[in-house]
Structures are given as C-alpha cells and as structure tokens.
Amino acid sequence: MDDNKIMAGKVKKPGKRGRKPAKIDLKAKLERSRQSARECRARKKLRYQYLEELVSSKERAICALREELDMYKQWCSAMDQGKIPSEIKALLTGDEQKISHNGSNTKASKNSKVAADKPERRNE
C-alpha cells in the first residue's frame, strides 16, 4: 500500500488533525497581539517597580540595623572600660522618661516601636 493507511476499512489520509482554523481577520489578530504585548509590558513595569521598592526598603532596614549594631558596639566598649552608658542605666531602671528628656533617645527603643507597628512580611 502507498502512504494512505487502512484502518477498519477506512482510508486515512496523512496530514494535520483537528479543526481547520477559520480564516481570522489578520488586522484583528495583529491588534490582539499588540494589546497583549502592551499588557505584558505594563505587568513587567509594575513588577520592577515593586522589586525596586522592596530593595530600597530592605536597604533602609539594613542601615538602621547597622546603626543599632554600632550603638551596641559603643556600649560594649564603654562597659569594657568600666563605664555604664546612661541609656543602659535607664533601661535597667525602667526610666524611659530620663532618656527622652536627655534628648539621646536610643535607636533600640525607636526600632522596637517601629517593629511593633509593622506586621511581619513574608517572601512570596
């Protein structure tokens, strides 16, 4: 037999299966493609904006933590020299009023207030 296949008495011709595509208006197809490309670019732009904002917020958090770490290092070096920083004395005695009146409000108390206000965010 030649290229045709015989199955259960029927002759099958080789070629594409399924429905034949209807003749689609070429202009409409191009317009749908353009619209889809516009939407894709808009989604991409939003995604990059979100990621840039996320990076900047993480950078700010890193800077705040570095400042806090520097403050703790200074406290440790002062205690190694036998001095107790006034901030630690105030924290040990529970005298928060003393810190705010001196004008040397600690980053630790600020960060704890900010952390309490912000809900924890998980990576998705």
Distance between the termini: 60 Å
State the helical fraction.
55-70%
* Global shape: rod-shaped
Oligomer: single chain
Radius of gyration: 34 Å
Could you list the spans in which at least 5 consecutive residues all have pLDDT below 50? 111-117
Mean pLDDT reading? 77
Can you offer a commentary on this structure?
This protein is mainly alpha-helical. Helices cover 65% and strands 5% of the residues. It has four helices and two strands, in the order E-E-H-H-H-H. The protein has a two-stranded antiparallel sheet with strand order 1-2. The two termini are 60 Å apart.
Which features does this protein show?
2 strands; 4 helices; DNA binding; mainly alpha; bZIP_sf; 5% strand
Summary?
With 124 residues, the chain is mostly helical. The protein has four helices and two strands. Helix content is 65%, strand content 5%.
